Amino acid sequence: MNHKQKLELTWIGKENRPRLEPRILLEDPEKSYHAARRVTEKDLFDNRLIFGDNLLALKALEAEYTGKVKCVFIDPPYNTGSAFTHYDDGLEHSIWLSLMRDRLEILRRLLSDDGSLWITIDDNECHYLKVLCDEVFGRGNFLSNFIWKKSYGGGAKSKWFVGLHEHVLSYVKNIEQFPEMFLPPDPGASKKYYKYSDEKLSSRGPYRLQPLATTSMDDRPNLRYPIHLPGGSDIWPEKQWQWSQERVLKAIASNEIVFTEKKGKVTVSYKQYLRDESGMQRMRKPYTIIDGHYTQHGTYESMALFGLNDKFSFPKPEGLIHYILEAATNPGDLVLDSFAGSGTTGSVAHKMGRRWIMVELGEHCHTHIIPRLKKVIDGEDPGGITKSVKWKGGGGFRYYRLAPSLLEKDKWGNWVINKTYNSPMLAEALCKLEGFTYAPSDSIYWQHGHSTERDFIYVTTANLNHEQLLQLSDEVGPNRSLLVLCTAFRGREDYPSLTVKKIPRQVLSRCEWGHDDYSLRVENLPKAPSPPEQGDLFEEGGDS
Q1: What is d(CA 55, CA 525) in angstroms, rounded to the nearest whole number?
Q2: CB-CB contact of 129 with 83 (8 Å)
């Protein structure tokens, strides 16, 4: 076998890819919400909550946010057997993989080069999803399979075992550019281990004693030397010291080295302070086993927000999201969750001073997410991580919905421009389709957008004649270029500086028009086909 050969997961229908329409987003100011006043100078207001199909929403974000998202956290449907009762098992599994693949590919493009993706999943699809992510992100960009201990007990009715964990698969955009991850010191551990105090260096807090000798097998002669004890004798390391001789001499002079004698044996230790010389507390690395943030906590948080009868089913606890965002992001970074659920990711990101985008298609976007975010912004959400991050409220978000499809069929079955589109909406939509930045000029009527400093686009529903096009060409001039999209024109097609195209003919073949729902909901899945003849599945390539 060629070891350089790329291994890929295959499944029924893998070759079928949706031709997504890059929709525009329409803000609804009545559903957007901002704090009545600034709480701090770091308040963030331009967060986005998007109502609509998450695959179309991701496509809508591509033009503006490619390469700008620092962290993606998603909690997709787990594809459990009970959710797909009416579908062939192999087909259902294949559809799930296709739907996930389409989303992962866009999410990867949205990530910054130093960004990361975190996906919660259970055993049912975890290992297939791992291979799929290897294909999309590259095996070398796999960070780890974090194990989330989701429960602290129960499960007495389980037939074989008590399931206490789920997986959090983590990938990075570019492992060479992904920075080290740190978490703040554990307050409990700090009190337990940092027992000693030093009056002369009180600004660095308490300290603990760490052995200066190391068992490292590295052959470094410069780390093997004698240390002079207070009594006048010398002590040599069994293997070698951790520090250079110069550093040890400085530490002895500043009283940071401690000699302890027990049963005639001398131990050399150094003082490890809780804070470094700059006053920052020592950070710790995140563990690949995440404990202490349980599903039960998420349920309690949901009950506190929405009441017993309206609580959200199986929400992720705020502590789990906090653990991930603390390790993978910094204040001000952009966090994206395209399976928003009850809005936990946005709520946690907001309290932590991260910018966020959430996407949700379900009606709970309005019944749960918006009320929850309002409480967070107003400082009326006492649960979750509120106390630990000292959240007092502030900031805001803007609510968007996906625009309807740009094209619709008329009563004769012809594709025409959707009647709900006004002129600005049409111009913005066609800018997106043609790869232009929508930026209408206040003074030049034909500048609706640009791709470079000298290349522009003009969108109109007017029927342009030869004289109008000549005049437009003169205004554009020889040093600029203009793409003109109009419903009809009369004249030649070789006007200087102009490229003239008719709409909707220009865009008819670009996308799947009128397709509004690519969601993972069961009712949107196609019916299972009739069983194939024996052997057909194997000829085409089945699941692997």
Answers
A1: 15
A2: no
Phi and psi of 376, rounded to 5°? Answer: -60, -50
Instruction: Look at residue 543 and tell me whether its pLDDT is greater than 50.
Output: no
Instruction: Select the highest-mean-pLDDT range: 155-159, 237-241, 354-358.
Output: 354-358
DSSP conformational letter for 156? T
Locate 65 and state its tokens.
């946010």
Does the CA dihedral 365-366-368-369 come out positive or negative? positive
Query: Band of the pLDDT at 362, cuts 50, 70, 90?
Result: confident
Q: Which two tokens stand for residue 98?
A: 């296709």
Does position 200 have pLDDT exceeding 70, yes or no?
no
3-class SS of residue 163: coil
Coil, strand or helix at 161: coil
pLDDT, tens digit, 9 for 90 and up, residues 2-53: 444 566 788 888 888 999 999 999 999 999 999 989 998 889 999 999 999 9
Higher pLDDT, 13 or 115: 115
For residue 387, give every residue at least 6 positions away whose Cβ sits within 8 Å of its Cβ, in sequence order, or none.
Answer: none
Q: Is the pLDDT of residue 334 over 70?
A: yes
User: Alpha helices of 40-81 — where are they, by DSSP H?
Assistant: 54-65
Which of 25, 17, 98 is CA-nearest to residue 58? 25
Task: Tokens 């985008």: give the residue.
Answer: 357
Q: How far apart are CA 206 and CA 212, in angstroms?
A: 18
Fill in the DSSP letter of residue 196. Answer: B
Q: What are phi and psi of 223, to 5 degrees?
A: -100, 5
Q: How far is CA 487 from CA 372, 457, 458, 462, in A?
A: 45, 14, 12, 6
Alpha helix (H) ranges present in 447-508? Answer: 466-476
Nearest to 408 by CA among 318, 332, 298, 514: 514
Q: Which residue type is seen at 231?
A: G
Q: Which is it for the CA torsion 464, 469, 472, 476, positive or negative?
A: positive
> Where residue 478 falls among pLDDT bands split at 50, 70, 90?
very high
When pLDDT is cut at 50, 70 and 90, the band that residue 441 belongs to is very high
Q: Strand, helix or coil at 213?
A: strand
| Pairwise CA distance, residues 363 & 315, whole Å | 16
pTM for the full predicted model:
0.81
Q: What is the mean pLDDT of residues 305-329?
A: 85
Q: How far apart are CA 519 and CA 99, in angstroms?
A: 8
Determine the Cα–Cα distance for residues 69 and 336; give it in Å rounded to an integer.
7
Residue 483's SS3 state is strand
All structural domains of the chain, each given as residue ranges with its CATH number in brackets, are 63-115+123-184+284-355 (3.40.50.150), 187-273 (no CATH), 407-507 (3.40.1350)
As a whole number of angstroms, the distance between CA 178 and CA 175 comes to: 5
Longest CA pairwise span in the chain (Å): 105
- 50-77 confidence digits (pLDDT tens): 999 999 999 999 999 999 999 999 998 8
